[in-house]
Design brief:
mainly beta; two-stranded antiparallel ribbon; 13 strands; about 200 residues; about 0% helix; globular
Length: about 200
């Protein structure tokens, strides 16, 4: 079951458009197949869960506009609340426990801005508490995380070629976190890329 509503409205030039949507859903699945890492990232185990129940809400909002003829901006926010549980066996210790690696809360937020040939942006991606296995106990719990990234880019044109150069600062708060248990993700990192087109 799914029920959704979308709203969109156009304004003046500074705030050109606003979009908003909300979706609520309730899924009951038999023989749900999920994959979880076993010994390492190259060895995954496929699990067949007899019955699962998922209730959730997806929210998305976006706005864009222009401060002047050269300066454009875009903001986007999305959020998901999802309660996905195993209801296969009432007598099991996993009954009504959350599915592995399925957070209740997740989402992202981005801001993008273009000024003539320059562009810049900020993004935040976050995930709530998860469990590495079907048994929801403190030993299997993984902490939530939220990473923040920045970028600055410049387009250029030199006679017969066009291109862009982009500098990125990823996870600039140097957050220490795991998406998969026992496999820490990179901390703060820098990246410079050059794209050339004939």
């Amino acid at each position: 079951w799914n029920l959704g509503v979308a709203y969109s409205k156009q304004f003046n030039k500074k705030i050109r458009q606003i979009n908003f949507s909300i979706d609520g859903y309730h899924n009951k699945v038999r023989d749900k197949i999920i994959a979880v890492p076993f010994q390492n990232l190259f060895s995954w185990t496929m699990l067949n869960l007899g019955k699962t129940d998922t209730k959730g809400i997806d929210l998305t909002s976006e706005a864009n506009g222009s401060l002047n003829s050269n300066w454009h901006w875009n903001i986007r926010l999305s959020y998901t609340f999802q309660k996905a549980i195993d209801i296969t066996d009432v007598s099991s210790s996993r009954y009504k426990n959350r599915l592995p690696y399925t957070p209740d809360h997740s989402g992202n937020f981005t801001i993008l801005s273009d000024i003539k040939s320059w562009s810049a942006g900020y993004s935040l991606v976050f995930s709530g508490t998860r469990y590495a296995l079907g048994e929801n106990n403190p030993f299997n719990q993984l902490n939530g995380w939220g990473t923040q990234d920045l970028f600055l880019a410049k387009k250029f044109s030199l006679q017969l070629i066009k291109g862009s150069i982009k500098a990125e600062l990823n996870n600039f708060t140097n957050l220490q976190y795991d998406v998969i248990r026992y496999y820490p993700m990179p901390g703060r990192s820098f990246k410079i890329s050059l794209i050339i087109q004939p």
